[in-house]
Structures are given as structure tokens and as C-alpha cells.
Amino acid sequence: MKVLGLDVGEKTIGIAVSDALHFTAQGIETLKWNEDNYESVKDKMSRIIQEHEISKIVVGFPKNMNGSVGERGEVSQEFASYLEETYELPVVLWDERLTTMAAERVLLDADMSRQKRKQVIDKMAAVMILQSYLDANR
């Protein structure tokens, strides 16, 4: 069974999945969604969970630098609860401070154009969130 990693943004959700042995994370796609309607990604998430035989979901938890939980963190908490109830899988909130900035830095170092970075940044952030989780739980 594999672990799913999610970087939940306002308009998109970056998605990564682990290998079966939980060593590595790979980005698989970025979903467009309406954060006011979680059902907007229900079918797509169901397909991904079944296709990749997911046993756990890790949701990036964007805390403020002082450790407090802001508006984006609250959205992640609510979405994590929705996922847990809907798919009956364990969901872990994982501190994602600075992952989007780190993903941006990796893509800049790879000399990727602004347009291409925009297309893959959320997926790359999901990889970094999931890889961090996997490394910490090995």
C-alpha cells in the first residue's frame, strides 16, 4: 500500500504518491479545484486512491513561521477531515512551512521557465511534503 501526499492550495492541489516500500515520493498530477466545494475533486481523488492503492494520506499543513495556525492551515485541517470521512483512510497533517519556496528554488536551479514552473510547482511541493514525511517515519 502507498501513501498519498497533497499540497492543498486555493485553486489547485498538488499530488504525489510514494512507492510501495515508502522510500520515495513522485509527483503525479495537479488538480484544479474549488475549495468552497470539496466535492469538486471527489471523483478524481477516488480514482487516484484506487489506482495507486493508497493506505494513508498526508496533507501539507501550512503553519505560520511562529507555529500558529492561520487561515490556510484551517482550510487544510477541514479538507483533511473531509478526506478521512469520505475515504475512510488515516490522514496525517504534516508541517509544510517553506516547501513551496523550496520547490520554487529547485525549479529555478533547473532553469525552468516561469510558465513551466507555474504548471508543476504544486506537484513539486507535494513531493517535498510527502518525502519529508517518509524520511521522518522510516
TrEMBL record:
GO MF assignments: hydrolase activity
CDD domains assigned to the protein according to its UniProt record, in alphabetical order: YqgF
The keyword Hydrolase is assigned to this record: yes
Compartmental location: Cytoplasm
Sequence ranges assigned to domain YqgF/RNase H-like in this UniProt record: 1-103
Alphabetical list of NCBIfam families matching this protein: RNAse_H_YqgF
HAMAP family: Nuclease_YqgF
Its biological purpose: Could be a nuclease involved in processing of the 5'-end of pre-16S rRNA.
Protein name from the UniProt record: Putative pre-16S rRNA nuclease
